[in-house]
Amino acid sequence: MPGCENTLGVRRLLTFATGLVECLGFAGAVFGWASLVFVLKTEGFFSSLCVNTTGVNATHVLDCSGQDERFSLVFTIASFLNNFLTLPNGFLFDRFGTTVARLFGIFLYTMGTLMMAFSSSVLSNLLFPALSLLAVGGILFLVTNMQVGNLFGSRRSTIITLYNGAFDSSSALFLIIKLLHESGISLRDSFLFLSACSAIHLLRTFFLMPRKFIPYPLPDHYTYGITCGKSKTPSAIVAANGDAQETAEDRPTDTDGKQEKSFRECVLSRFFMWHLLWLSVMQLRHYLFIGTLNPMLHRLTAGEPSLVSRYINAFAFTQLCGVLCAPWNGLIMDRLKGKPRAEGESEGEVDLRASVLSLFLTAVQCLLFSICAATPYLQLQYFTFILQVVNRSFLYGGNAAFISLAFPSCHFGKLYGLIMALSAVFSLLQYPFFALVKGPLDGDPLYVNVGLTLLSLFAFIHPLSVYLHCRSVASQRAKSGAVAAS
């Protein structure tokens, strides 16, 4: 029916647009922590950890390194749980589907916003569970939305990376809260408003998302949500809404042989191991930068509050550009996948070949970002902020896109969760690094920054490995073709 086809087209566009707004406005707010810390300090959170000390010429100065360390610990735990709990959340998503995973995520996110709303300087420790719940609930928004790319076929990688870019840009939410706070609107009012927005997430869950999954490749006449008339392919509706024991998305649907791999084989593969290292070293660099940005700017500005605030605002504003930067990564992969195939080349080989440039560019960006972040020159930090948001957008968008391309789609939730969980364990190094800077290094992060810059070089192993694999497969295919021709 033409009317139903039009309705399905409108529904898919609405699903895409509202998913983008959801990721952009809520999902990754926790990574705007530097903006929120500025507000929390003015509200007196953990102020009891500031002590009077004797400075140069016997002057009395207020030492708030203990307060900075506590704020860093809050962010370290939240960012760790954000990644580590993606593993059980991935299993939850793969086992029970979209609706259950989203309802759980909405519950966690709402609890986090309510805890933030009712926290105070007296109840400073509420920040620990509140920020962690915001982080875990937010990543579930992203995980359940990335499947929307399956609705758009050849633009799949572009949409996956766009959603990851929106996730990065949502860190600007805490900047908005900071600006509203400076205008006289309390933290409680801002977070109560975010709690009320959960009603929108619920409506979207029931009306614009499938009960189970969006399969890939997409079956003909696939529909989801409220249907229009009677579909000619009721099995597609069953696949969308999960009313049968075995649905289309539960069965392997890829056409290049990837579906023959078990979850265990995927985890033990060389691709998974090198991809984990690629993600972990760059993620650690970003987490440490975000977690220590406030004290770093305080050091470079000699403690001038207005100057610190200006740079914090500049950093937060650049985060908004994540949604603009991330799609370029997907466009690169989709464009390379669109090139003519060599004779006998499978779709999986094309996907891997297309990912090499993306993986390499991301590693180059991280190296440049790390060098700039390690340079103790205040004005250079504007450029550092730009490199950081570009690289972070490429990192997380490329991570999700590579997993979707290199492994069977039926394992996406589990593999995405596992790799995020394992990288989270590695990211726990940020706290001892922060303690090292605050303690033995007397607040000077130069040596830690140099070490992290050298560590980031390991990220180049992954694109090199994928490139060598693609070249080896192409060489074997050429030899087989020559033998067959003779």
Brief characterization of the structure:
The protein is 70% helix and 2% strand. With 486 residues, it is an all-alpha fold.
Number of helices: 22
Unreliable residue stretches: 228-259
Output the helix-strand order.
HHEEHHHHHHHHHHHHHHHHHHHH
Helix content: 55-70%
SSE order and pairing:
Elements: H1 2-27, H2 33-42, E1 51-54, E2 60-63, H3 65-84, H4 86-96, H5 98-117, H6 127-145, H7 156-169, H8 173-182, H9 187-196, H10 198-207, H11 234-241, H12 263-267, H13 270-291, H14 293-300, H15 305-319, H16 322-337, H17 347-374, H18 381-406, H19 412-427, H20 430-438, H21 446-455, H22 461-485
Antiparallel strand pairs: 1-2
Helix pairs in contact: 1-6, 1-7, 2-8, 3-6, 3-19, 3-20, 4-5, 4-6, 4-19, 5-6, 5-9, 5-10, 7-16, 7-18, 13-17, 13-18, 13-19, 13-20, 13-22, 14-15, 15-18, 16-17, 16-18, 17-18, 17-21, 17-22
